[in-house]
Structure formats: structure tokens, C-alpha cells
Amino acid sequence: MRTLVILLGLLSLGLLSLLVAPRPGFAQDRPKEFQTFLTDFPPGKDVHPFRGELSPALKEHVHPRLIEFWQRVGFGSFGNGFITFFDPRDAETMLARWLLLQHPDPTRVPIARTAFGDLIYFRDLRQRAAENGLPADWKTGSDVIFLSIHYRGSSAITWSVDDFFAKDLKGFLQENPKAFHQFYSTVGGQPLAPGECFYFVPALALGGQATKKSVGRGDCLVHQEILLQLALSSGPSRK
Fold it and tell me: What is the pLDDT of residue 130?
């Protein structure tokens, strides 16, 4: 009986050690291609790999590295909530409207937004490259764009999806104060709820200032729509 008790005790300790042993960090479980990104922009608890079926359009027009990121890392918030990756179909209509298109363009694929509602999207430019006598491949025929809904303009983040994850997104945010990355750390308060973003009151387009006192929060789609209407009344967005 004593031997049985000892064996049971050792077994329970072994099981307990498995339960309490520290698990590898999120970044350590992910492909090395995304290690740097996950270190610079740690994933939130809501991040989950995409397990659904991609549409034929996404399979055709999205860089394979982005698809790999969706499937092996996933959708959700990163960088203490500053950037959120989502299913492109959730924002394709809004992006199309900001680009003054009647319908979503399968070669313009929204992939993320910031905590201030700005959009990040991928462009399949392979046909344009071919028309200009360049190789119609991902290396010369794609880029990633930052669309500022507050300043009504767009800028290229990178021409390489690999570099987007390795260094270019971080560099872009550090070098562009209008992306509000550094400003974000000063806002404070409760984390944004799913679907929320920060905005400025009054809007910058109406003469508002990007100060801590002017920051509000609310439904991101509603705020993107409000700023879109203001933009449409004064001039087009860049494609």
C-alpha cells in the first residue's frame, strides 16, 4: 500500500509539472519569418489563426506570405492593440469607397487597421508591371499601402511583403508621426473594444488638433464613414 501511495504521488507530481510548466512564448511557436514582427508587435489574446476557406480572388491576388501569416499566426490585435489584422472581406467595401471605386477591387486587399482607424492594404500590381515591361511577379508587382483617413492621403509602406513583417512596418510607423504610433502610447485608458477605434474631436479635417484631450473612441466603421463623407466633400483619396 505504501508503495502504491508513493507511485501515485510521483505520478500526480509529474502530471502537475506538465500543467504548470511554462509554455513557449507566442513568437517561439511561430514561423521564423514572423519572429521579428511578433517581437516588435506582440500579439493580443484575441489573435487566432484563420481556419476558413479563402475565396478564389484572395488566392489569386494576395501574396503567399500574407496568406501564410493569416493561417499560421492569424487575425487579431498586435502591438498592445495598435494594429489589428482582419479578414479582408470585413473591410473591402469600406476600402473601395475610400478609393472611389464602385465595387471592391480584388487587386486592392485590406489587411489591417490601426487603433485610429487608418487602413493598411495590399496591392497586386503584377499586371501593371507586365504592361511596363517588368517581370509580372510578386517582387516587382506588389506593395503595401497606408491609407490615412485623418489626413486623406496614402503612402507606400513597402514593396516587399517579407520586409513588411521584418522591418518596414515598424520603420514606417516610427518615421511617420501622422500614423500616431508614438502618440498611441500617451492616450491611456481602457483598451479598445472589438470594432472600436480612437478619433479626434473635432476631426482633423475640421480643424481639430491631435492632442490627448481631443481623443475620443467609438465604432470604427462609423468613424471611417464620417471621415469619408468629409473627404468626399473636398477631394478624392489616392489609389
Answer: 96
Give the whole-angstrom CA distance, residue 104 versus residue 231.
Answer: 19
* pLDDT tens sequence across 201-213: 999 999 999 999 9
What is the number of alpha carbons within 13 Å of residue 183 lying toward its C-beta? 20
**Window from 6-20, 74-88, 178-192, 205-219 with minimum mean pLDDT:** 6-20
Residue 105 amino acid letter: D
Per DSSP, the three-state class of 83 is strand
Residue 52 DSSP code: S
> What global pTM score does this model have?
0.85
CB within 8 A of 16, min separation 6: which ones?
A: none
Nearest of 195, 198, 190, 196 to residue 215 by alpha carbon: 198
Where do the domains of the chain lie?
24-232
Query: What one-character-per-residue DSSP string does 135-197 give?
Result: --STTTSEEEEEEETTTTEEEEEES-HHHIIIIIHHHHHHH-GGG-HHHHHHH-SSPPPTTEE
**Can you tell me the distance from the alpha carbon of 60 to that of 105, in angstroms, rounded to the nearest whole number?**
12
pLDDT, residue 31, reads 67
